């Protein structure tokens, strides 16, 4: 895949994703802080929130890494095919 064919995200889309993540995290954190429960329960929920956030980042990284590995494998296969096609002479007669 050439550089011109790679999908690019716009700055607006990136900003929307960041703001959405920040708003959701802040809303949940505020909700946990104002729950009418004991501090131990709030602490447990806060740790759960942090665990969910780190798990989401880890999952996103793993998915991106697998996709990148697939693209590299695809590029290697394409390079091999290009080499074979470049070396192939359809008018060559073997055994002469």
Write a brief structural summary.
The protein has 96 residues and is mainly α. Helices cover 75% and strands 0% of the residues. The model has no long low-confidence stretch (mean pLDDT 84).
SSE blueprint:
Blueprint: H1 11-33, H2 39-87
Helix pairs in contact: 1-2
Could you characterize the architecture of this molecule?
The longest helix has 49 residues, at 39-87. This protein starts with 10 loop residues before the first helix and ends in a 9-residue tail after the last helix. The mean pLDDT is 84. With 96 residues, it is mainly α. It has helices spanning 11-33, 39-87.
Q: Helices and strands: which structural class?
A: mainly alpha
Summarize model confidence as the mean pLDDT. Answer: 84
**Beta strand %:** under 5%
Uncertain runs are none
- Binned, the helix content reads over 70%
Largest sheet: none
Radius of gyration: 26 Å
Kindly state the number of beta strands: 0
> Total number of helical segments?
2
Order of helices and strands: HH
Q: Which features characterize this protein?
A:
mainly alpha; 2 helices; 96 residues; single chain; 75% helix; elongated
